[in-house]
């Protein structure tokens, strides 16, 4: 099976079984998604979704968040992993958006990564989810699933994984392919005990082939 055929099998499978895949973070606008994604680093979406309503009630937009103090914001996110850093990142992010982007959250990866707390993965999430730009965010799930399926070969870093995936996934499908791989890794292709018995991608999965050979 060629690499192209492998990708096509995966795309066809998910288009049939997960045509409406989307982020599990709850948000109403770009500001809320940006806050949620910053908070989600090394933290579950479920925990983030339990935390953000109180933040958005007190700080409904960038201008209000930019005026927040550490002591006021910290108690709202103390149940999240790395609350000290994330409190500083959120306030710093809001201030930079106000000072350098006229209060408007930027729409490109190079601009977004300038913001405190925003790395390439977060910037790719924002631009792909909100603007449907062909950017592939690579988290631990995407990294693991891509390697196991054989979509990537000897990719050592998230960037290498991103570059290999973008080579074969059609541009118009990149934004949803990101969710396909994340959700598959979250619920089926688990890190320690993958549920191979219920996985419809077994026929092309290199990891499964090694298990049964």
From TrEMBL:
Q: Which note does the record give on the cofactor?
A: Binds 1 [4Fe-4S] cluster.
Check the UniProt entry and state the signal peptide residues, or none: none
CDD domains from the entry? ENDO3c (cd00056)
Q: Which UniProt keywords apply?
A: 4Fe-4S, DNA damage, DNA repair, DNA-binding, Endonuclease, Glycosidase, Hydrolase, Iron, Iron-sulfur, Lyase, Metal-binding, Nuclease
Q: What top-tier enzyme class does this entry carry? A: lyase
Keyword Nuclease among record annotations: yes
Q: Enumerate the Gene Ontology biological process terms.
A: base-excision repair, AP site formation
Q: Which residues bind [4Fe-4S] cluster?
A: 189, 196, 199, 205
Task: Enumerate the catalysed reactions.
Answer: 2'-deoxyribonucleotide-(2'-deoxyribose 5'-phosphate)-2'-deoxyribonucleotide-DNA = a 3'-end 2'-deoxyribonucleotide-(2,3-dehydro-2,3-deoxyribose 5'-phosphate)-DNA + a 5'-end 5'-phospho-2'-deoxyribonucleoside-DNA + H(+)
Q: Which GO terms describe its molecular function?
A: 4 iron, 4 sulfur cluster binding; class I DNA-(apurinic or apyrimidinic site) endonuclease activity; DNA binding; DNA N-glycosylase activity; metal ion binding
Q: Which InterPro entries match?
A: DNA_glycosylase, Endonuclease3_FeS-loop_motif, Endouclease-III_FeS-bd_BS, HhH-GPD_domain, HhH_base_excis_C, HhH_motif, Nth
| Pfam families reported in the protein's UniProt record | EndIII_4Fe-2S, HHH, HhH-GPD
Cross-referenced SUPFAM superfamilies: DNA-glycosylase (SSF48150)
The cofactor required is: [4Fe-4S] cluster
Q: For this protein, what is the EC number?
A: 4.2.99.18
Domain HhH-GPD: residue ranges = 39-187
Q: Which PANTHER family match?
A: A/G-SPECIFIC ADENINE GLYCOSYLASE/ENDONUCLEASE III, ENDONUCLEASE III
What function is annotated for this protein? DNA repair enzyme that has both DNA N-glycosylase activity and AP-lyase activity. The DNA N-glycosylase activity releases various damaged pyrimidines from DNA by cleaving the N-glycosidic bond, leaving an AP (apurinic/apyrimidinic) site. The AP-lyase activity cleaves the phosphodiester bond 3' to the AP site by a beta-elimination, leaving a 3'-terminal unsaturated sugar and a product with a terminal 5'-phosphate.
Family indicated by similarity:
Belongs to the Nth/MutY family.
Q: What is this protein called?
A: Endonuclease III
Q: Where does this protein come from, organism-wise?
A: Chitinophaga niabensis
